[in-house]
Input
Amino acid sequence: MSYQIHDNHIPERLVSFEGKKYRWLGGTNYLNIGTHPLFQEKLQEGIRIFSQNWGSSRLNNYRMDVWQNLEDVLAKRFQVEAAALCSSGLLAGQTAMQFIAQKYPEAKISLAPKTHPALWRHPHLPAPGEFSTWEKDAQILCMDGIGSPWVEEFLTGFEQQLSPNQTLIVDESHRLGIVSTQIESSANVIQTSSLSKAFGIPAGIILGKKAAIDSIKINPFWVGGSPANPAYVYACLHAQEAYDERVILSSELAKAFTNNASHVQFVKNYPAFSSEDPALFDHLKSLGFLCNQFAYPNPDASPLCRAILPSCLNLQDIEDLTHALSTYENA
Output
C-alpha cells in the first residue's frame, strides 16, 4: 500500500488518517526538536534578529558570524577539526563530491550499493548488489553511514583497513545527531549530512580535517552557494541543550525497542526499522501504528515499509510496538 496524508502541520506523536488516530512512525523528524521550548524560543529570537533569509555570496563584503559560530560548535560536537555549512544536505554532498573530483581528477570513484543521491556524481552511480560484495579498492569511496530507507549498518570494520591514500566520503544524514558518527580510519574521511532531520533546520554540513574544509571554503562551488537561513542557524546554535535532552530520550526509546524487536530489519540501539514485507504495514496499522510505505529513491520500485521512533513517543508506545511486531504471523 502507498498512501498520502494531506495536512498543514508537522506531525507529532499522533496523526489522523481515515478518520482514526494513529501513533506516527513516519518521516525523519527523529528528535522532534521543533516542539522543544528552548528551540522555539531561540528560533523566534533568531527571526527577530535576522528578519529574512540572506542569499549572499560567501565572499560578500558584509559578513555575519552566526554561520562560523555554528560550524565551530558542530565541529566540536562531532569531534572533527572543522565544518562547512551548506543550505541543504544534498548540496553538502554534491559540494564534497565536486571538491574531491577536482582535487583528484584521475582518481577512481566507487559508490557503495544504496548510496544516497547526495553523493552521486555522473557517470558514477551506486554499485549493484550487496554492500558485502562491494569492491573497496578505489581511491575515492562513497557511502551512507547507515542505510535509509532500508535500515542497515555499513561501517562494520572495513574502514579501518583503508589506506591514507584513500578518501572515504560518508553521508551521515541518518546518524548525525542521533548516534555516534566517529569513524576510525587511516583514510581521509569527509562526512556530509542534512541538518533537517535530527537538527530540524533547513541546512547541511560538511565535516572533516581543517585542510580539506579550508579548501572547500575557497572552492567556487561552495562560494557560489547561498548560506543557510541565519535565523534557523541561530536557533540551532543556541539550543544545543535541547538537542542533548532529545538525544537522551531517543536513545532510551531505541534501546528499549531493539532489545525486544522482531520480524523487522534494525540496527542495535538505533531508532528506526524497516521491512520489505508489504503485509507488515497493514498489520501495524490495524494495531494503531502508521509507518511510511513508499518507493524511494526510485519511484518505480516496490514500496518499502520504514519507520522511525521519534522522541515524542514514550516507553509504553515502544512496549505496544514490540508486542505488535511479536504477534505478526506472516514472518
User: Anything to note?
Assistant: The longest strand covers residues 188-194. Residues 240-258 form the longest helix (19 residues). The chain has two domains: 14-34+242-326, 37-238.
